[in-house]
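COURSE: Structural Biology Practicum
ASSIGNMENT: Worksheet 4, Part C
STUDENT ID: 0417
INSTRUCTIONS: Below are two proteins. For each, the amino acid sequence is given first, followed by its structure token string. Answer the questions at the end about the second protein only.

PROTEIN I
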Amino acid sequence: MRARIHAALGDPARLAIVDALILGDASPGEIGADLGMPTNLVAHHVKVLHEAGLIARTRSEGDRRRTYLRLQPAALACLTPPPLRDADRVVFVCTHNSARSQLAAALWRDRVGGPAASAGTRPASRVHPRAVTVAHRHGLRLDPARTAHVRDVVHDGDLVIAVCDNAHEDLTSPVRPQLHWSVPDPVRVDTDDAFEAAYTDLAGRIERIAPIAYPSAVMD
């Protein structure tokens, strides 16, 4: 398995794709546009990376015609992520600001210690009760009444991370997410297990990104 991973990463184009996906998910079209790579070449390299177990494909919960690529966490041990740009604060954004973005901001403040906030493109009137419950289960606190719109939260100098497909696809200039985490919406399933899975996904991503956001940060 290790030999296959190293072989897959031996091509500069495939390594560039992996570098792009370390910090967030992207569609093949977005990868091609960012790297200046033709569609057929992207498809070839994605196939090699998928067969090596480095990436997985997921269908967008927003535009069902889209497919997003995401790195497989177990294959990241031998990868060194590219540095993040300096940011005054991290702002996590989802659609309703009722679950994923709230959990991500609480996790960031607890695990990393840097300033963090959350917002939604169409904020709900309250934080979802199951999100509050899963946060409490892991020693985090969410204010059930505190949701906000992106226009009232995001400022210049913020690092904006979209933690849902709809926010990533809907937000354009002047608020454009620098990173995208394709975390499935637990509200659609509305079970304790779905919210726990979203928490685990976000915690894993923050654990991977923390050392390059704040090199001195130590995860519990």
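PROTEIN II
(use this one for the questions)
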Amino acid sequence: MTEQEFYDKVGKTNGWDFSSVRCISEGMEWDFYGEVIKKASPSHILLDIGTGGGEKVLEIAGSFSLIVGIDNSKEMVHTARANLEKSSAANVRFFQLSAETLEFPEGFFDLASSRHCSFDALELAKVLKKGGYFLTQQVSEGDKVNLKKAFGRGQGFGEKDGSLKEMYIRDLKAAGFSKVAAFEYDADEYYKTPEDLIFLLTHTPIIPNFGEQPGDLAVMNAFIEENLGEQGIRTNSKRFLLIAER
């Protein structure tokens, strides 16, 4: 299954909604869209890249004049538009569009955000106003370390931790962003039941083709037995945050 097929499948069945997953996190140092709101003004226009089912931006619609959410997956956008119809937000629009070709007027957006989605720094620099901000939260290579070691594969598995962060910082500076501030955390996560963890793994690319390779079930059972404690099944969530000024 290609990456595009995976996101279309998830978009059709779930969007990017993980509210049903029961998980305790210890050590998270920020809420990403809370950080976005800190830079917002009621007159601002926000571009959200990789918006998924639009769940997060619909929650913060009242902080902006207009929000434009884009996603490369047709099914994600379909789900986002369905979620929009069920909401009270009148200032949000969703489009199927690649982050590599932002077909908007130059300097159209005051803010841009990207949560766990790749982006093109040059395209962002083109559509952001001078003095505008871009915020992105990304998954570090050191995320879900014990899971990836157990399965012998995974998102960023075997890559040097911090590589993606340093690449994005270089790209943003090269694109003309004047200031780039970086933050990171490595939080403990405890999933209440095996079903909660399995839901996460079947709806994200953390372990590619999870459940489809021989031996995955045995590996999962052994992992749960080894990492199950009083708070739940333990793993880690490692994230970095970049805040760049245009």
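ANSWER KEY EXCERPT:
Q1: The chain is about 35% helix and 30% strand.
Q2: Confidence is low (pLDDT under 50) at residues 5-13.
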